[in-house]
Every structure is written in structure tokens, then in C-alpha cells.
Amino acid sequence: MLCFGTLVLKFFREMGKIFHVVSLKHLLLVSIALNVSLILRVINISEKKILHSNSAHVSKNIHLSSSPSSSSLTSFANARIEAQDGEERVINLDHGDPTMYEKYWQQEGDKTTIVIPGWQSLSYFSDVSNICWFLEPEFAKEVVRLHKVVGNAITENHHIVVGTGSTQLFQAALYALSPQDALEPISVVSAAPYYSSYPSITDCLKSGLYKWAGDAHSFKKEGPYIELVTSPNNPDGFVRQSVVNRSEGILVHDLAYYWPQYTSISFPADHDLMLFTVSKSTGHAGMRIGWAIVKDTEVAKKMTKYIELNTIGVSKDSQLRAAKVLKVVSNSCESSSSEGENFFEFSHNQLATRWELLRLAVQKSGQFSVPEFAPQFCTFLGRDFKPQPAFAWLKCEQEEVNDCESFLRSKKILTRSGKHFGFSPKYVRISMLDRDQNYNLFVERLSSIFSS
Ligand code: PMP
């Protein structure tokens, strides 16, 4: 740009020589003016580009019938301000990416920052005296502490096995619980609607040890079986117990959502094999850390063996980071602590607002329904509340709509069809854990869908 200015200056000098009219001072002023205008033009163009790429378009003139709480109104209003040129962008709520939690962790700043020097985490081993020899003692300590603080699981006299997410632990559990010398694979069942990944994970390697056998409600086969009990359930959020109830059943309790932001903690869970994950407790899905709480020593040994064969342990760096995150969460829960806002109170309130907005949108549209829940006393928060699950199990109530996923896709809302959960396609699962901007845009758009 300065070169351009110099050229302009030269040009005017020549002109000056020719016409002897314009002084050098004038020429300098003109040159500066040209440079400034050029700079402004460039800034203006790049600003337009940024605005264009960031702009999310919302449908206009849509109002919810009653007013949601004031904190939600601010971010809700932000979504409305985005109304640009009438074109709607696609809202993807198909996956359960827990980005809602970013807000809390940004607010907490450096509290969870750790530094890992280059000489650390070289060894495969973490604690050779433990059955789970790759379990970092600091992580195990914080798992035990958090369960005690929240009161959602018994850890005394249980083994902790760490995994690369609870997804790996689920597979380790299937491996450990299946009879090794059976004539046929053991049946794996879960009551529909069940977590959509269970069938595909169970059958992906066509194992000779275990096999997906579908909905537990209709499971009639004699003999041993493994039942997956997800409580609260993904996708519908209801608290669950086993449904098959036969003596030869082996239970795996997936308690990924048994945390007070989602559901009342009514007692410390004390099952034979319980699965937890940071993905849904603290929102750190990308850290890929889960843990199993296991009663039986042989089962804990076999699960450890599976992870040894599969990935020779679990990232130490992630375990150390997870330990720090759990520690900050526990500290935040201690009332005398100056460790910042209680993590569970904060995220509980975020979800309460979101469910409030969703129910208003469903009511305004009149085309959908979501489950109704009964309030229950929560020993952690010390009050009654209704479940506010991480997913909304939404039903398209219009008679002519049989495929709710396609219907919502036509409105540029991406969801997961009920058919993936062993259920009716009139239902879809919608993530409640996305960022405010996306979530608010979603409820606004949903509220504007009326009968055709
Ligand atoms: N179990 C359930 C019920 C889940 O919903 C999820 C995540 N969608 C998982 C397990 C997997 O968790 P992770 O990220 O720890 O593998």
C-alpha cells in the first residue's frame, strides 16, 4: 500500500512539474488520503467476509408464547439478532457433543490447566501394584473423591478400571463377562429405546464371544445373557432398571448420565459393573477418559487384559488432565471452597433453562411432544426436580409424519431417528448439550413449525 502511495506521489510530482499548480504539501495530503482510503477498503472487505462466514440465519418474526428466564433471554436474543437474509443454516443436533460445557470451563480460566514436562509419561506403567496397572493413582483418587462428594456411586471395595472413553470399557466388559468356552456367543440385550451405538459396537467384529440380540423387552432365549442398563437412559432420559430379570443375566450399568445436572441423585449406585465417563459428567469428551467401577476381581482383571491387548493402557496425559478436572469439580462442590461456582449447580441451571425453552417451543408449535417426568428428591442438590436429560426424545405428533428425522431435516434440523434406537421413526433424539447459539436457534426454529 505504501508503494502504491509512493507511485501516486510520483505521478502527482510529474503532474506538478507539468502544470506548476499543486504544491508538494498538497500532493502529500492527497497521497495520505489515498493510502487511508485503500486501508479502509481492505478492512471493510475482510470484515464483510468474516461476517458472512459467521452469520447464522434465523427465520424472522418468531416469538415464543411466554417469556423464558432472563439469562436464557440474553442468549436467545443473540440468536435472533443473527437474522440476516432469510436463508436458514443447518442445525446439527444429531450427535451428543457436549460443547455446552465450554462456557463453565472458560469461566474457570486456568484452574484446570496442567503442564506436563517432556520427561514425564514415558513408561507404559502407572501403578504395578494395582490390578489395572495403567491406572494413574491421582486419577483414581479423584474418581473416588468425586463419587463421594456427589453421592452417586459406591467405590469402597470395588476396583477402578480406566478406559479410553467408556466406549472402550463397554467392549472390555463384554469381553470380560462372556464365557470363553461357550458353544455360541452370549446374547447382549438392552431395553428399547437403547443407546444407538450398542448394536454396532457389539457386532462390529462379529465376535465369537458375544452377539447383539436386540430389545430386552422381547428377549425370550433361555440361557445366559448380558443386559445393558442405561440409567438415566440415552435417548429418553428415564431412570431404568433391568427388564429381563432372570437368574442367568449379567448386568452392565451404564451410568454416564447419573449426575445431578441431568437427574436427581437418589442413592449411591452399588452395582456389579458401572460405567462412567468424563464426556457426560464434565463435558470433556475429547479427553477420551472413562472409568468402570467393578466389584468382582476376576472381571476387573479381564477388563484390564482387554485394554492391554487393545491399546496397552490408556493415555497418561489424559488421565492426569482428567484428574485435575475432577479435582476442580469436587472443590467447586465444597460449600466452604473459594474454588468458583459449583459445577453441577451451573450446568444444572443451564439445562433447566434449555428444557424450559424446549417445552415452550413444543407448546407453541403444537406439532411435537417430549417426555413428561416426575420430580424426585436429589440428595446432592437438596431439592426436588424433574429430570432434564442430555437428549430430548421428541415425537412428531402429526399423523401424516411417519419419519420425524426426514421431516426435521426438511426444516434444516439434523437429528437421529428413533429407528437407530430400536424404536419408531416417529421419534428422534436431539442433543441438548450443544453451544447456546446452536441450541437457541434450534428452539426458535422448532417453535415456528406449524401444521402444513
Ligand atoms: N454410554 C452412553 C449411554 C453414552 O450416551 C455415551 C456417549 N454418547 C457413551 C457411553 C460413550 O461415552 P465415551 O465418550 O466415554 O466413550
> What name goes with the CATH superfamily of the largest domain?
Type I PLP-dependent aspartate aminotransferase-like (Major domain)
Shape: globular
Strand order, main sheet: write it out. Answer: 2-8-7-6-5-3-4
Bound molecules: 4'-deoxy-4'-aminopyridoxal-5'-phosphate
Question: Count of DSSP helices?
Answer: 13
Structural class label? alpha/beta
The main sheet comes to:
7 strands, mixed
Radius of gyration, rounded?
A: 28 Å
Helix coverage percent: 25-40%
How many individual domains?
A: 2
Mean pLDDT: 86
Oligomer: single chain
CATH architecture label name of the largest domain: 3-Layer(aba) Sandwich
CATH topology of the largest domain: Aspartate Aminotransferase, domain 2
- Proportion in β-strands: 5-15%
Topology pattern, helix = H, strand = E: HHHEHHEHEHEEEEHEHHHEEEEHEEEH
What is the topology?
Elements lengths: L1 H18 L4 H31 L15 H12 L9 E2 L9 H6 L29 H14 L8 E6 H13 L8 E5 L6 H7 L6 E6 L9 E6 L18 E6 L18 E5 H4 L7 E6 L2 H15 L4 H18 L9 H23 L2 E2 L6 E3 L4 E3 L5 E6 L7 H6 L3 E2 L1 E2 L9 E5 L4 H12 L5
Parallel strand pairs: 1-13, 3-4, 3-5, 5-6, 6-7
Antiparallel strand pairs: 2-8, 7-8, 9-12, 10-11, 12-15, 14-15
Helix pairs in contact: 1-2, 3-13, 5-10, 6-9, 11-13
Bound molecules: 4'-deoxy-4'-aminopyridoxal-5'-phosphate.
4'-deoxy-4'-aminopyridoxal-5'-phosphate (PMP) binds next to helix 6.
